[in-house]
Amino acid sequence: MRFPQVVLVKQHSDIPAITNVADVVRQEVARLNLQVKRGARIAIAVGSRGIDNHALIVRTLAEELKAWGAEPFIVPAMGSHGGASAEGQVMVLETLGITEKSTGVPIRSSMEVVQLGTTASGIPVFIDKTAAQADGIVLVHRVKAHTDFGGPIESGMMKLITIGLGKHKGAQIAHRFAVQRGFNQVIPVVARYVLKKIPVLFGMGLVENFYHETAVISAAKPENLEETEKELLRKAKTMMARIPFGRLDLVVVPEIGKTISGTGMDTNVVGRIYNVAEPEAEFPQYTRIVALDLADDTYGNAVGIGMADLATRRLVDKIDFKATAINCLTGACPEKGRIPITLDSAREVIAAALMICGPVEPEGVKMVWIKNTLELDQFYISRVLIPASVANPNLEILSDLMELPFDAEGNLAWITPCRTEHINLRNQAGI
Predict the structure, then answer these.
(1) Where in the chain are all domains bearing CATH 3.40.50.11440?
(2) What is the pTM of this model?
């Protein structure tokens, strides 16, 4: 089997990161001019996403609350993640660097919920019991494009309220209603209801730049939370990382997992949604997608594997089928847990994908090989994509043409080769 030759490219962005994160967090909190009673028990709701400076931001918020005389603690707000268990959700926080030691406050994890009521549209509303009994709640979450739907409110603080603080039961109910109504008629509706019922002090919205560095930090009182999030989402969409090619024959994804994306692979990157509640994306269009491995810190949760056409035995052998089933069933998206055609090695998987991506010879295959859908600053492209890359001012070619670096077992190892003959490379590509 012949494989396309590839070159390594770098994707550039000029959106800067915040360098004094803790100072900005303090400034945002001070700007709200809030006060709480001494001894007030304040729950800091923390989700399960891998967010830049996450532990630092949570610790800084906790320090500010302590300075007010409050008694802050952390509540995991992650729906059914962590195997839908209190212990599992603490473990997820630990993988994010958020522990009692790193933040200086206790973590109170429970899957017990209370029902706050029912929305006017008939959706039962549940929330973490520990958070509901607190004197106040602080929300801290990244705002970004959602992986299952589009709208003025997608993934952010409103979702953290509805899905995260809803725990397993609340998340399951929200997703069930979304199957028929769509997420836009569930997530903001439930979040608005919760904001009227419990004492949310403020939300801390975070936006990351192309390199997944903290670029925007914005605090909002509950009455301004929704409008603030809408504005942050608009900013987030201008910063998000994407593969800079709208049509490809093959995308090779070496690693999927919950810490990479809530759907294992970011649907905004791979162009597949696979959720009956929402229509499929029209763009980008990638004929075949292969997944090669499962991130270790996802603890066997392989949600998103169903979006791949083929996968390796290495990946499938790492799956915790119970954890994956809980996540997929809670999210009403069993499609994302389906096991694709499984072959023994990356070499076999890529060879098979090349045979079924259309009547294209390997030299003409439009292929991109990324690290994962989160890290898109560097990736490999096949030879035929070099002219478009040279013409793109945001792309820089870093290496000469090379063969795919399979090892003796057929695994694909990411390497960072040097560029020695850029002029020759341009000539080889016919530029």
Answers:
(1) 34-239
(2) 0.83
